[in-house]
Amino acid sequence: MAKKNQPEVKRLYRSRKDRILGGVCGGVAEYFNIDPVIVRVLWILATLLWGFGLLLYITMWIIVPRNPNHNWA
């Protein structure tokens, strides 16, 4: 039985609605409640400027689960 005073736990999922490749940027945007374009631009900058963005994206694509509330068929 869930307690009434406990806050709802937010979970990070890959998005099906705001997806271009794997839905990672869309999922991060849904988690932080911001525009997915902002996340994508930051991800591109991280890839071009510091070089870790692509590796991080692929890692998150593998690790972060799909959103069970979205239709993945």
The amount of beta strand, in percent, is under 5%
Outline type: globular
Structural class: mainly alpha
Poorly predicted sequence stretches spanning 5 or more consecutive residues? none
* Integer average pLDDT: 87
Helix content: 40-55%
What's the main sheet like? none
Order of helices and strands: HHH
Query: What is the rounded distance between the termini?
Result: 32 Å
- Count the E strands: 0
Rg over CA atoms: 14 Å
Determine the number of helices (DSSP H or I, runs of at least 4 residues). Answer: 3
Task: Kindly describe this structure.
The chain has a domain of 40 residues. It has 73 residues and is mostly helical.
List the helices and strands and how they pair.
Layout: H1 24-32, H2 36-50, H3 53-63
Key traits:
globular; single chain; 73 residues; mainly alpha
